[in-house]
Fold each of these.
Amino acid sequence: MKYARPLPAYLTTRYRGWKATTYAEDKAWYRRLAEDGQHPRAMVISCCDSRVHVTSIFGADQGEFFIHRNIANLVPPYSPDGKNHGTSATIEYAVGTLKVAHLIVLGHSGCGGVEGCYHMCSGNAPELEDSSSFVGRWMDILRPGFELLPKGDEAMRKRALEKASVVISLENLMSFPFVKQAVEDGVLSLHGLWNDIGEGGLEAYSPDTQGFVAV
Amino acid sequence: MKYARPLPAYLTTRYRGWKATTYAEDKAWYRRLAEDGQHPRAMVISCCDSRVHVTSIFGADQGEFFIHRNIANLVPPYSPDGKNHGTSATIEYAVGTLKVAHLIVLGHSGCGGVEGCYHMCSGNAPELEDSSSFVGRWMDILRPGFELLPKGDEAMRKRALEKASVVISLENLMSFPFVKQAVEDGVLSLHGLWNDIGEGGLEAYSPDTQGFVAV
Amino acid sequence: MKYARPLPAYLTTRYRGWKATTYAEDKAWYRRLAEDGQHPRAMVISCCDSRVHVTSIFGADQGEFFIHRNIANLVPPYSPDGKNHGTSATIEYAVGTLKVAHLIVLGHSGCGGVEGCYHMCSGNAPELEDSSSFVGRWMDILRPGFELLPKGDEAMRKRALEKASVVISLENLMSFPFVKQAVEDGVLSLHGLWNDIGEGGLEAYSPDTQGFVAV
Amino acid sequence: MKYARPLPAYLTTRYRGWKATTYAEDKAWYRRLAEDGQHPRAMVISCCDSRVHVTSIFGADQGEFFIHRNIANLVPPYSPDGKNHGTSATIEYAVGTLKVAHLIVLGHSGCGGVEGCYHMCSGNAPELEDSSSFVGRWMDILRPGFELLPKGDEAMRKRALEKASVVISLENLMSFPFVKQAVEDGVLSLHGLWNDIGEGGLEAYSPDTQGFVAV
C-alpha cells in the first residue's frame, strides 16, 4: 500500500501528550478494557458530522458506548441479501453479540446529508439522483420522510426532515427481527434524540406526542 | 413509532451537567460551529468498539474530525451499483464535499469483528457464513487478508489480521476514482494506524517496510 | 530597497529541510488551507518574546489560531481616530471578519516589556518617559496596572504587573463596541492566561476570585 | 474583569499533554530560558494569519525568534508622536534592547489584509475607507504599493501587492533612525520573504533584481 503517508506532526505530538497524561493516569482501566473486552451499555447511531461528539454530551468513558456513525444517522430497512451492509452489521453485532440494553439514534441540526436529501427530493440536486452517487443512494433511505413533511418555510422543513431521519431509523430498526424480538422481550429499548448544535439543546422523541421534546 | 422510550435517567443527568458546564463555557464555539458549518481537517474511519475514542487520543475538539465508525474500520471496494452503501457515502461526502486533507483508517487491538472473521475463515464460525449474517457478509471484505496471514500462533495471527483490516481498507479506498484522483493531485493523503488499547500504543503503517511502526 | 540581504544560510538550510519533510508529508493540508482560506477557532494575543510558543503549548496545527503578537500582549483602549492602530486592526479583523469564538490574552513570566514599565513607573527608567520612546509610550497602556500593585518585594510586584497586563487587556477589549456586542451575544468568549516559562506552568484568570489559578 | 471565561476543555487537555511531554523532556532548557532571559538571533515580522507558522518553516526552538505579528506584516513609517505605536515599539525593543542581528519581514499568499487593501484602493470596499475602520486605516500603510502595481489580471496584482507589503515594510524600517544606524554599522541585516502557503514555497527579496526569487 504505497500511498500511505506518515501521520501529520501535530497529531503525533498530541498523541504523545495523551499517552503521557490521560492514558498514564488511567492505565489500569485501559488494561482492564483490553483484558475483559468491551461491555458497552448502549449503542449509539449518530452522524459522521465533526460537530457531534456523543461521548462529550453524555460524559462517556471508554467502554460505555458502542458507536456507529454514518451520514445522517440512518438505518436502512432489513434486507438480508448476502451483500455488504455496514450499518446492519453493526446492529446485529450490538444486539446479538454485545447485548446492549439501549439503542440510541442521535440526529442533529445543520445536517449536510439531510440537506442534500432535501434538495434532491425537491428536484434541485440532480447529481444526487445519479445511480453512481453514493450519498444520493444512501439518502434514499430518508426519501419517505420528505413526502410527509409539513408545509412551511424551508428552514422549518429541513429541521423536520432531520427529525424524520431519527424516526425513520427507529422504524427501520424494528424491521430487523432480532431487534423486534429483543424489544418485545424487554431486553432492549430504543431512543430517538436530536441535538441542536449551536444551542446545546437535546430533544427526545416521545411516542405519546409523536414529536420531540426537550430533555 | 410507539417503541421509543424515554432516555435513561443517568444520561439525562449527565447531559444536563454537560449543558451547564462544557456547553455553557464554550457556547461561542458551538454557535460558531452551527453558523459556519463544519470544516474538518481529517476524516477518520474507526471501529464502533466502545474502547476506541479517536477524539481523546488526538485531543480533538468538536469540528476537527469527520468520523465514520463501522465494524472493524473496513472500507468495501468501489461498487457503484445504485444500492445503499453507507461507508462509500461517507467517503464520497468527506472527499467530494468537505474536501478533507487527511483520511485516517484506525484499527485497534482486540477487535471483535476481526476475531469473528478469523474464526469464520478458519471454519470455526459457520453461523457467520450464513448469507443472512450481516456481520459475516461485512467481514467478507477482510477475507483476502486472512489468506495472506503468516503462519504462527493464533494471537499473533489475529493481530496481523487487525492490521490487515487497515491495509485492505487503504487499498480499497484507492479503488474509488475520486479518492485516487485526490491522492494523485496531492490534495488528500491516506494514513493507516493501529491502536493497542491496553498499552495505549499507536502504530502507523509505513509503505517503506510494509509494516507498522510505533508513532 | 537596496538594504535587503540574502537569508542566512542556516535558515535556508532549515527551510529546505522543512519543505522536504513536514511540508511534503502534509502537502494536502497546506493546499486545503490555501484553497479554503483560514477558519481559525481562536485569536491569541501574546507577547513577541521568543520564549513563548503558543502553538507548541496547545498542540496547534496551521490554521487553528489567529495570532497577534506585540510587546507585553497589550490591547490599547478603543480609539477610532483614523490613525494606524495595528492591534485594534487585528481585533477588528478577527472578530468582525473571521468571527473567532475565543479571544485569548496570553501573558508570561519574565516579560521584558512589563519590567520596563515597572522601572518606568518607579521612576527608574527616565529614557522610557521620553515622548519619542515607542516602548515607553506603548507601555503607557499598562500604567494603570502599576498604580494598583500590592505592596511587597519587587519580584512579586513584577509578576503581579505581568498578570495585570492580561487583565487590563481584557478590560480594554471590552471597550471595543464590536467585542462587547459579540461577548454579550454569546458568540465570543474572552480568556486570560499567564505562562510560567521556566516551570511550564499555565494559570487562567478567574473572575470569581479575581485572580489567576493553575489550569 | 467579569467577562473572562474558563479555557475550553480541549485546550486544557492539550496543555497538560504538552507539559507532560515536550516540557518535561526539555525542562532544563525552559529553566535556562527563564533564568538567562531571551537572546533571540532574529526578529520576524509576520502576519497574524493562522496558516503562517514561521517557527515551523524554520524549525525554530523556543528562544530563537522575537516575533511580532500584525495584519499583513506591515511596518508603519517612523512617527515619534508620543502615541501608542505597537509595531514601532517591537522594533525599538528588538533592535535597541535585544540587539537582534536579523530582521525578517515575512509576507504570504492569500493574505486577507492585502486583499482588503486591494479592494479598498480599487474603490470596491467603501466600508474600509471609513475613518473608524481599524483595518482600513492600518492598510493605508500599503496604499503606496497599490499605486505602483503593474497592469494585469487581479490574481497577479494581488500577489504583487502581497510582495509590496514586504518591500514597503523594509523601506519603512529604514526610516527608523536606530534601524538605519544599525544597518549601516553592519550589526543588523534586513530580509524580505514571501511564503506560498499551498505550495510550501519561500521567496526572498533580492535588491539586485528588485524582485523575489525562490530560496
Amino acid sequence: MRLHGYFRSSASYRVRIALNLKGLGAEHLPHHLRKGEQCAPSYLAINPQGLVPTLENDTGAILTQSLAIIEWLDETHPEPPLLPKDPLRRAKVRAFAMALACDTHPVQNLKVLARLRQLGLPEEQVTGWAAWANREGLAACETLIAEEPGPLCFGADPTIADLCLVPQLANARRFGVDLAAFPRLLKAEAAAKTLKAFADAAPERQSDAE
Amino acid sequence: MRLHGYFRSSASYRVRIALNLKGLGAEHLPHHLRKGEQCAPSYLAINPQGLVPTLENDTGAILTQSLAIIEWLDETHPEPPLLPKDPLRRAKVRAFAMALACDTHPVQNLKVLARLRQLGLPEEQVTGWAAWANREGLAACETLIAEEPGPLCFGADPTIADLCLVPQLANARRFGVDLAAFPRLLKAEAAAKTLKAFADAAPERQSDAE
C-alpha cells in the first residue's frame, strides 16, 4: 500500500497509527502542504479535495478521508479491532472521534487558516482562531470521557478515539493551547504514547519531518 | 426515541432522513439554535459540544454526532442498509459523506460564522465564507461521483452519501451558491427528493420551521 501524507498533517497521523496498529506496511509518499504540493493536478486526480491523506491499496484502489480509510482498514484487517463490538459503545467512540475529525480539525486546518489570512486577519487572530477551535473541541471531548476509567479514551485498548486525540493534541500545542484543563485527555495521550504504533507514527519520526 | 434537533440544522436533517428510511418513529425536540437554546446547561449535559442533533434511544442512552448516530442506526436496524456491503464501496460512500460532514458543514456552521462576526468581518464576507466552504466541498463531491451512473450518489439505493448531500445543497442555496456547476449532484438530489423519507425530513416540513 502507499500512503500519501504529510508529516504534520493530523489526518495523515491518524492513518499512520492505524496502519502501525494493524501491522501493515505502507510506502509513505510525502506531499509538502506548505508548498502547495497537494494542489498539483496529478494529486488532485486521486484526491479532488486536495487534502491528505490518500491511501492506495494493494489493488491500486484509491481511498480518501482519514476516518473512511481507518474504517476500511478495520473492516478488512479486523485484528486488533479499532472499534468496540457493542453498537452503543461504537457510537460513543465514533462520536468522540468525529467531535475532533469533523468539528475541530477542519475548522483549524491549513486551508481555513489561509483563507482567514486572505480576508485580512492578522497572524495573531489567525493563531487565536486555531487555538479557539482546538479548545472548544477538546473541552467537549474531556467531558465525553470524564466517566471512562481508561487509561486510553475508551478502556485499555486503542480505538479510533485515541487515533484522533493524539494528533489533535499535537495541533493544540502548536497553537499554544493550555492543556492543563484536560487531565483525562492527557491521561489517554500518555497511555497511547507508550505504544510503539503511536510513537512510530509521530510527525517527528517521519521522513519528511523538518 | 427522541431526537433533539433544529429544523434548519443540516446534521439534524441527515438523521431525520435516516430514521425515516429505517421506518423508525422519534419524538422531535426542537432547540432554537439562533436563540442559543443549544447552550442551555440542561442540553449541554447531554451534548457537551452544544450541537444538534442528539438522539436518546429507547433505553435512554445518549448518542451524539450525526454520522455516529446514523452508523448506529444502520448497525442496529440493518434494513434497508445505508452503506453498501463491499468494504471498498463502503469506504467510497463514507469518504463522500465525510467530505461534506467533516470538511464542509463544520466550516460554515452557525458557531463558526458567529466567530467570524466577532472578529469584525462584515456580513458580506461572512456569507462569502459560507458560500466558499460549500463550493469547495461540493466541487470535490461532484468529481468523486462523476463516474457513478446513479441516479443517487452511489447507485439506485440511498446511502449516507445522499443523507449528507441533500441537506448540504439546501445550505449551499441559502448562502447563494450557484449550483449549475454540479449537475451530477443535482441529479442525485432530484432522485432523492422523490423518496418520501427525504421529503418528510425537509426543514420546511418540521414543526419548528419558521
Amino acid sequence: MYEGIVQDLIDELGRLPGVGPKSAQRIAFHIVQTQNFDVSRLARILLDVRDKVRFCQYCGNVAEEVTCHICADPDRDTTLICVVEEPKDVAAIERTHEYNGRYHVLGGAISPIDGIGPDQLNIRSLMPRLESGEVVEVIIATDPNLEGDATASYLSRLLVAMGVRVSRLASGLPVGGDLEYADEVTLGRAFAGRRIIGGE
Amino acid sequence: MYEGIVQDLIDELGRLPGVGPKSAQRIAFHIVQTQNFDVSRLARILLDVRDKVRFCQYCGNVAEEVTCHICADPDRDTTLICVVEEPKDVAAIERTHEYNGRYHVLGGAISPIDGIGPDQLNIRSLMPRLESGEVVEVIIATDPNLEGDATASYLSRLLVAMGVRVSRLASGLPVGGDLEYADEVTLGRAFAGRRIIGGE
C-alpha cells in the first residue's frame, strides 16, 4: 500500500506486542513526518539492547553486567528472596519501596496448555542460592491467577521440603477499590485472608 | 527503575504516539526477551526510513524517489486530483480501489488553535499542477470534522476562483452502521445529502 520502506517499517512495528496495524501505521508516519523525532537514537538504543542486555547470573533479572544491580547491591537484605514471574514484576515491587531483599525471576509461570512446565522456567538456579542457609524466607510473588497459583504451589512444595520458610503475597481487595465491584474470587480470598484487628 | 539501557528503550518507545508507559515497558521486554525478535532488522529499517524517505515533489506524499509511485504511474488519470490531509489518507483511498486519479497531500488541516494556517500546509504547490488546464476536477477529501471542513471551504474558494470544478466526499451514514447509533450531525448530513432513488 505504501512505498516499500515505509511499509517495511509498518510491518516491523506491527510485530510488537499490543501494536495493531493502525497503531503501526500511526507510529510509522510519526517517525517519518516528525522533524524532531530522533530515529537514529531509537535505532542505536535497539542495537545497544541487543548487544548489552543479558540476564543476571544469580536471579535471572535483566542486567547490563553479569550480575544485576540488585544482586550486586551490598545494602540489600540477603536473607530474603522474592520469586517473581517477569522482570517487570521486579520493577513493580521496587516501586513500592516495601521490600529490600533480593529477587528470583522465573521467566514465566507453569502453564501446561502453553507447554511451560518447571523445566522451562528459571527454577533450577534458585536451589544453589538456598544452599548456604543464609536465606530465611522465600516470598512467592507470582501472579494471582491460575498459572501463578500452580507455580506457587509447585515451588512451595519444593522449598518446604528443603526446610525453607515460604510465604506468598496476600490476595484480597485492592486498596482504593470498591467492594461491590470486586469479583467473587477476590472477595472470597479477602474473607479467607482476613486479619483480626481488635478484640480477643 | 530498570538497568540503564532497558529504561532508555522504554523511554524512547514511550515517545511514540499511542504508546503509554505500560505499553512501552511491554514492548521493551518483548524485544529483550523474545529470542527470535530481530532487533537489528527494526534498527536497520528505522535508519533506512530516515535516509531514504522523502516527500514527492508533485503531491507531497511520502516517497522513496523524487516522485512518488502514484505521480510516476502513467496509467493514473491525470485529470483528477484528490486533496487529502495525510499520506495515510492516500493509503485509505487506495484500498477502496474506487479512485484512479492523482493526489495532493496537504500535511494537515487548517487549525487556528494549533497555529496551522494555509501557509503551514502544502497548498502552494497545488497551483502549478492546475495551470496546464489538464485537471478537470479537484476532489477534496479532508476529514469530515471542523478542521477538515475549514480546509475544504478555504480550498474550494481558492480553486473555484481559478475556474476549476471542485467536489467534496459525501458525508452520511457509514455503511454497515446502525442508524440509531449515528450521531446527530452525521444523521443531519445524511438527510441534507439524501439522493432521490425513484419517483419523478
